[in-house]
Design brief:
This protein is of the alpha+beta class and 160 residues long. It has three helices and five strands. The longest helix has 44 residues. The N and C termini lie far apart (75 Å).
Length: 160
């Protein structure tokens, strides 16, 4: 009888460890996919050049177009709706939250160092660009892994 109880306990322990490993692997996949989406969104936003200023020889971004482009890229790459809530079939289950979106424009002196103490983030931009910080929560498959969430940071400069 003792061997039977021991065997059942070992099987349960093995299943829990297996579930934990699967959850950790899926969490790593989620953070990599979400980070790529944030980087792509920042890059897309940083390409929204202000045509009127460009005619005068000034490199500058159009903030409204940059914001729209960043949201569109996040929506398309993470399968989100207009409110940044996950669509059916998305690997996320909770809404994505854009915590920081800053357009560093021609009004700054370059190289410009952006610092955000709240998120422990610093980046130096050589020309106009965008800084984007997005909060993403991992949808756990099993209850073994404690809740995981990340503040993913991305930045990009205007490429010409």
């Amino acid at each position: 009888m003792a061997k039977l109880v021991f065997s059942v306990l070992m099987i349960v322990l093995w299943w829990m460890l297996h579930a934990l490993q699967m959850d950790e692997e899926m969490a790593m996949g989620t953070v990599h996919d979400a980070k790529r989406a944030v980087d792509r969104a920042a890059h897309a936003a940083a390409q929204q050049i202000d045509g009127d200023k460009l005619e005068m020889g000034i490199l500058s971004l159009q903030p409204s177009l940059a914001s729209t482009a960043a949201r569109e890229y996040l929506r398309n790459n993470l399968s989100l709706d207009e409110s940044l809530n996950p669509l059916p079939g998305s690997f996320l289950r909770e809404a994505v939250d854009v915590r920081v979106f800053v357009v560093v424009n021609d009004s700054e002196t370059f190289p410009y160092t952006y610092r955000n103490e709240s998120y422990d983030y610093e980046v130096t931009l050589e020309r106009p660009g965008v800084v984007l910080i997005v909060h993403v929560a991992y949808p756990r498959m099993f209850g073994v892994l404690s809740p995981v969430a990340w503040d993913l940071k991305g930045s990009a400069e205007l490429v010409y």
